[in-house]
Amino acid sequence: MAKGRMLQKRISKSNKMQMLSSDTVRLLYTWLLSHLDANGNFYADPVMVNNLVFTRLGHSVKTVLSALDELANAGLIIRYQVDGETYLNYPDFFDKQPKLNPEREGNSDIPNMTSESLINNSCVNQELILQQKAQYKNKKKISITANDGFEDFWKVYPKRVNKKEAIASWNKATLPSLETILKSIEKQKMSEQWLKDKGQFIPYPSSWINKERWNDEVPGEAKAAW
Questions:
Q1: Does the domain at residues 9-125 carry the CATH identifier 1.10.10?
Q2: Is the pLDDT score of 219 beyond 60?
């Protein structure tokens, strides 16, 4: 699980936040966010929430349960049950975490929500939530598919690290011809900047693409030092 999550500043203008009954409920919503797994899930047992989220605030379990009820009634969380255990989900989690990378977080021990596991949350459009999850999964699959020419670039680039980031940059960039890119790399491979200190100053491939480094002028060539 990640060390934290992104809290967007638009929350300050949120009508749903303003309509909540107290700052305690607002605090629970924002502090819960940092504990969510890569699917936007967390435990909904008020005892666990109180111990893990409000660890040092001294709230009663009754206060936490009341706050969870209010968040569910406002549509800010969805509660569901699996094998007798109660969990919660943030319905707009994927929209508000654009840089989420589940592959870096490992597997969560919290089961995912299904339509059969939902507790009564009449104010939330459950079908829309499941559609958002499906769209997010499809987006992840697309993001790791490289456009034509990437593998040729990858084979000749001397610092082959962070391939997924490089693919994402390649897919977004307005690229010249592949021939132009490959010729630029071959020239830059022999530049003093790239050859000194065993290639320490060679940019990451994603940075090279993002900054359109195929346009760089190469002042001179040198013989490899290693």
A1: yes
A2: yes
